[in-house]
Amino acid sequence: MAAPLWDTHTHLQDESFAGDLAEVAARARDRGVERMVLVGVDERDFARIPATAERVPGSIAALGIHPLRLRGDDARADPAAAAARLGEAIGEVARRMRPAAIGEIGLDAEAGPDDAQVRLFRLQLALARELDVPALFHCRRRFGELAAIVRRDGLPRRGAIYHAFSGSREMAAELIALGVRLGLGGALTYGNAVRLRDLVAELPLAALVIETDCPDLAPEPHRGERNEPAYLVEVFAALCRVRAEDEDAVAAALARTCEAMFEAAHE
Ligand SMILES: [Zn+2]
């Protein structure tokens, strides 16, 4: 019996799933994707994620403020004050709700002043350490700064996932040395991702997890469609293919990693 597949990064709370969430959840289950992490991006998710988790069997809730939230109209006027206010808001909610992870959090080249982003990221990384749950990182063109903060501040005991990894061999080595897992998604299935597949073939399996990032970034052959957790099987198949490893063994290894990160933290 194959181990359940874990989709470690979904946004099923997104309005694009409002009309058919039950069908989406059933399709995932039919294809062996039995566990899903619901990942937060802003304060609306403080209510939407728990409500969605109740409707999706096998799902668990993460809460976080995405760095791009600082681009909001209310935040742009005074990003430093917004970072402090958002950090305080998520701290209050997460201490009460006890999510299974804090995320997605991180740094993004498009997200406005770096000092406000850094402040918001460090507040939430500290929150994950305090709650003893893993952190889910989002990072776009700010890798060196993110890695330096993680090295200086420290990871939560249950580690972290660097979501949507598609970086270099050096980045992978640095993340693994820090104890951060690499989240692999639809990019692994794209025709031009030769370098990523070559790299993933060589990395320790225990350092890897898989994800859809639905509704975005659908894998082949669904590219351009709304993404959903059932399509994780395409990412999983690509991972097994590039590593030339047995599917049951890969599924079991991935499930062990996710159980250690999320379940022990949650119970
Ligand atoms: Zn995401």
Based on the model shown, name its key terms.
single chain, 267 residues, alpha/beta, TIM Barrel, eight-stranded parallel sheet, 10 helices, binds zinc ion
In short:
This protein has ten helices and eight strands.
Mean pLDDT score: 96
Poorly predicted runs: none
The CATH topology turns out to be TIM Barrel
Which series of helices and strands comes N to C?
EHEHEHHEHEHEHEHEHH
Structural class: alpha/beta
Distance between the termini: 25 Å
List the helices and strands and how they pair.
Elements: E1 5-10, H1 21-30, E2 33-38, H2 45-55, E3 59-63, H3 73-76, H4 79-97, E4 101-108, H5 114-131, E5 135-140, H6 143-153, E6 160-162, H7 169-178, E7 180-184, H8 194-202, E8 208-210, H9 232-243, H10 247-266
Parallel strand pairs: 1-2, 2-3, 3-4, 4-5, 5-6, 6-7, 7-8
Helix pairs in contact: 4-5, 6-7
Description:
The protein is of the alpha/beta class and 267 residues long. It has one domain: Metal-dependent hydrolases (TIM Barrel, Alpha-Beta Barrel), CATH 3.20.20.140. Helix content is 46%, strand content 16%. The chain contains 10 helices and 8 strands. It has helices spanning 21-30, 45-55, 73-76, 79-97, 114-131, 143-153, 169-178, 194-202, 232-243, 247-266, and strands at residues 5-10, 33-38, 59-63, 101-108, 135-140, 160-162, 180-184, 208-210. Strand 4 (101-108), helix 5 (114-131) and strand 5 form a beta-alpha-beta unit. Helix 4 (79-97) runs parallel beside helix 5 and helix 6 (143-153) runs parallel beside helix 7 (169-178). The longest helix is centred in the last third of the chain and has 20 residues, at 247-266. The chain is globular and about 50 Å long.
